[in-house]
Amino acid sequence: MERISTIHEINDLINKKEITYKEVTNAYIHRIESVEEKVQSLLKFMPEEALKKAEEADESGNTLSPLNGIPYGLKDNICTEGYETTCASKILYNFVPPYSAAVAENLNASGAILLGKTNMDEFAMGSSNENSSVKKTFNPWDISRVPGGSSGGSAASVAAEEVVFSLGSDTGGSIRQPASFCGVVGLKPTYGLVSRYGLIAFASSLDQIGPITKDVTDCAIVLNTIAGHDKRDSTSVSMEKKDYTTFLNREIKGMKIGIAREYFAEGLNSQVESLLKEAIKTYRDMGAEIVETSLPYSKYALSAYYIISSAEASSNLARYDGIRYGYRTEEFDNLLDLYKKTRSEGFGEEVKRRIMLGTYALSSGYYDAYYKKALQVRTLIKEDFDNAFKSCDVLLSPTCPTTAFKIGEKSANPLEMYLSDIYTVPVNIAGIPAISVPCGFDREGLPVGMQLTGRAFGENDILKAAYAFEQATDFHKKRAVI
Amino acid sequence: MDYEIVIGLEIHSELDTNSKIFCGCSTTFGAEENTQTCPVCLGLPGTLPVLNKKVVEYAVRAGIAMDCKIANFSKLDRKNYFYPDLPKAYQISQFDLPICQRGDVEIEVGDYKKTIGITRIHIEEDAGKLIHDSGEGTLADNNRCGVPLIEIVTEPDMRSAAEARTFAEKIKSILEYTEVSDCKMQEGSLRFDVNLSVRKNGTKELGTRTEMKNLNSFRALERAVEAESRRQIFELERGNRIIQETRKWDDDNGESFSLRSKEEAHDYRYFPDPDLVPIVLENSYIKEIEDHLPKLPWVRKKDYMEKWNLSEYDADVLTVSKDTASFFEKTVEACGDPKSVVNWIMGDISAALNEQNISMKDVKFSPGDLGELIGLINKKAISVSIGKQVLKQMMETGESPSKIVEKSGLSQMNDEDELKKIVLTVLEKNPQSVEDLKNGKEKAIGFLVGQIMKETKGKANPQVVNKLIKDNI
Questions:
Q1: From the CA of A462, how many Å to the nearest CA of chain B?
Q2: Which sequence positions of A are flagged as catalytic?
C-alpha cells in the first residue's frame, strides 16, 4: 500500500487481484486516523458506511467504472442525502438535506465510496480555510501554513492521502488555489459542464464543481463521471459526452501555448516566476509553440469579481433566516429581531462582509455604478480571452502569485487575501476551464502550481497539455511528509 | 365634480397550469398544508429552479389576447425581500424585460367604448401563506410557493369606479376564455392592486397616487376606488397634500388605512436570476400560439349576431362567461335552433341556476341533452310545458330528456282517435261552455282545452285538441 495513491494505480492492482476494495478503504481509514489530527481536513468522517460499501464492492465482484470502490471526499457545500451539509457555517450546523447533489449521485452510481466531507471557508468565501466556523485546516506540506481555500479541506485531504480524490467548488479559484498550495491537481470545468444541482450556492453565475486529484489521469477519470447535462440545472449545457482520458496521451508538438504578459508582472513571487519560466521551457522543449499574448482587462477582474460574486451571494444567502432550518437565535422580540440576531450570530465575519458589499452594490442608486459596471467589465474580460484564443490553444500562467502563506498571515487584511486569487478569478468571470498542476517547489519545499486555461469546453486541450507536462516532470510524484 | 379620478390597475392572476412555475409540484388549491412542496419550491440550499414551459405559453396567450407585443427576449429577475412566507427570501419575477408589453383592451361602459392601455404582463412565482390563528403561533403553509402568476399592469387610463370594474371583468373574461386562469376569486386566483390619484378637471399633470393592494372582488375594487377618490378629494379640498403611500383596504368597514409611505418602501434590489437562462421566443412559436388561441368573447359575440341573428343583448349575456358561451354553441350544434337555445338558456336554465346559486359549469346535463330536448319539442313529441318539466328533472338527475319522457310517460298525445274520446267526454260534461262557444264566446275554448289537458296530464297536443273541439261542437 505504501506506493499507491492514484485511481489508476488502485485499478491496476484490483484488476491484478493483488488487493481488495476493502483493503483499499481500510488503508485510507487508517491513514485518516493517523494524520487527520495534524491536517484537520475533514468535517465528517464516515468509516463504517465506507467499509460496508467496500465489502459490497468486493462481493459483487464487478468493476462498474474506474471509480468503483475508490474512497473520496466531498466539499461540505455539496449536498449529501441524510448527512449534514454545513458549508462550514454555524448557520447550517444541523442542516441535513433530503437530497444529494447531482455530482454525489453520479459518483455514487459509479461505485465511488464517500469517506468524508471536507472543511472549507464558510460558504466558500476565503482563500485559506481560516474562515471555516468549525476549525482550521493545515497544509500537509507545512502545518504552520494554510492549505489555501476555499476548497482547502478537499485539497489537503488529497495531498495528505486521506482520500484518493475529492471534489471542490470553484467560484474565483477555490479549487485551483488550494490545489496549487497543496501540490495536487485541481480543475475548474467550463461553466455549465458539471451540474450545480445540490451545490449550495455562493455565486451562481461563477460556481462550478470540479475534481482535486493526485495527477492529471485521475482528473480526467473523475471529470468523465461528473460532467454531463442535468435537466435540474438550467445552466447545465446539453452536449455529447467526451471521454477525457482519450485526450491525454496525444502529441503536444505544435500546440500553441499563450503567455499573457499581464500575468507575469508586479506582485508575482520571484521563485514562482522562475519555476513558471522553467515550465515554459519544458513545453518549448517538447515542441509546443510559445505565443506571447495579452489580457488587458484582467486588471479589473478582481474588482468586478467582488461586485458580482458578493451581489449574488447577498441574495443566495438571504434564505438563511432562522425560520425553517439551520441556526436560530435563542431569544428575540419580533420577526425583524429574529432575522437580525440569527444572521448576526450565524454568519462569520467574512460572509457578513460580502453580504453587506453585495447588498450595497445592488441597492437602488448604486446598481448602475457597481453591479451593471461589473457586468460590462465581465463582457470585456470574456472578449479578452476570445481574442487571446485566436492565437493560442491554451494559456499558461501561475495559479497564484505566491506559495502557501502562514496561518494568520493575511487574515487581518482581507484585500491582501483577495489578491491571492488574482490569476484564477478572470477564468470564472469568463466561464472557461482551467487546471492547476504542480510545477515545482520553492526553497522552503512548498509546492508551486501552474495554471493552464482553455477555451469554453476545451477541457480536452488543457488536460492534454497538463498530461504532457506531467509526463515530462516528476513534481506530482513528490509526497507531503506529515 | 371638479375633480378627475385617474386609475391604473395591477392584476395578479394564478395560471391554470398543473404544476408549479419552477418545479413539478401540483398547484391544486386547498390541499393539506405543506403537502404540495419539494426541496425546489421550499428553496432548500443547493436546489435550482427550472422554468415550466407551460407558464411561458399561458403568458404569451394572455399577451396575444390583450394585443400585446410579445418579447422575443425576456429574462427572469430576483426581487429580494425578507418575509417568512418567502422561503428563498427572493421572489423570481421579471423586472425590466417582461414577456409581454404595450397592449390594448377595449371596454364598453354604459353607452361609450374606451381603450385601456396594457403597460406590461410579466410572469412570477407566488409566495406561501402565513397562518396566524392556529393556536401555535404563526405557521407557514408553503403549498402556494411557486404557483405561477402573471401580473398585468395597465396605463393610468381609467377614470371611474365603473370603468375600473368593467375593465377588471373584461380581464377576467379574457383569462377564462384563453384558459390561462380559472379566475376563482374566492381562491385568490385573481387579485387587484389599485393605483389612484385625482386632479382638478383640465389639469394635465397627474396627482400624487396611492396604492391599495390585494382587492379580491369586483365589489371591493369598486368600493375601494370610490372611497379612496372621495378621501383624496376631501384632503385636497381641505388644503392638504396627498402622501404617496401603500394603503390597505378594509372591505368590512369600507375604508382604507395607511400601510407604509414611499420612504418606507422596500428596495427590492432586482437583478437577473443567475440560476435561469433568458426566455428566447421565436416568432414561429408566438404564431403557433396565436393560431391556436381559443376564440375570444368579442369574436364569439360578433359570430352570434351575424351567423345566428342574435340580438346584441342576447349575445352579450351569453358571452359573459366562457362556460355559458360554450354550452350555447354546442347546443346549437346539436339541435340547429339558436333561437330556442337562447330562450332556454336565458330563461328556465338561468332561473334555475340563480335559484340554486350554481354556475353553468355545475349543470348536470350536457349540451347534447338540451339539444335533444329542443328537438323533442320541435318535432312535437312533447309540448313546451312538458319540456319545462323535463328540464327540471334534467337539472336534478342529469338524465337524458328522452329517457325522462319515456320513464314518466310524458310523450305528447297526437293520435286524433285517442284524443277524440277524451274531447267528447269533456264536451259532454261542460254543456254551458259548449253553448258559450257556439254563441261566439271564443274564451270558452280556453277553458275546454284546459280541462282536456288536465285529463291528459298536459300531454295532449293542443293544436289537435283545438281542431277536435271545433269539429265536434
A1: 27
A2: 75, 150, 174
